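Form 7-S
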Amino acid sequence: MGFSLELAPQLRRQMAALNAITAHRLESGNRVSTRGANVIFWDVDTQIDFLLPGGRLYVPGAEKIIPNLHELTAWAGAHCIPIISSACAHLPGDPEMRTYGPHCVAGTPGQQKIPETLLPNRLVVPNRRVELPDLRSFLQVIVEKQAFDSFTNPNTEQVLQQFGNDLSIVMYGVTTDICVACAADALLDRGRHVQLVSNAVAALDEKKAASFLDSFRKRGGMLVRTRNVLRETSAA
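Output:
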């Protein structure tokens, strides 16, 4: 079956699920309280164009990590562990388009996050400077970006700071060799403790991914697996 034929029914299911969940923009007042925690999850670009066959920049085999992505997301929601999620929201003319072609274009179905990585009480932070509310009131904060590095969004530093300095950051998503690597390196540069969930990431270039993982471990990053994360955060 061709990619386009595979994508159509999946997109219908994805969009139906997305429409059933209410997202909050900055004007939203509906919130829940979360208990304090020194662990946060960092979800990198878990979007339809990357994760589903037929997506505009599909990562081969990436759909196989969706069960682990879903388990991590559901666990975070059930245990009030905050999730910071990056999400590409490209516009025509973005530099990435010249290298990888159109993908995750703002407002298109492919730009949406898969519903398995969405929590109901969430805030979307656009890629322009805005006044942020108390982010600890939200289960999930989605940071939009137009480049590999999440910190190109002018609000990302403040988003991170709101969750404190003494953090253990559990990271997962796509792609290991590009945006995951950028996010992990940026956090390590800032002195953060980062754990990467090895069975909840996928790469476009396995050789580059292996090189990044070697560097990541040498810099103090840790590789973990989904079951370890759930066990450790349950005991925390």
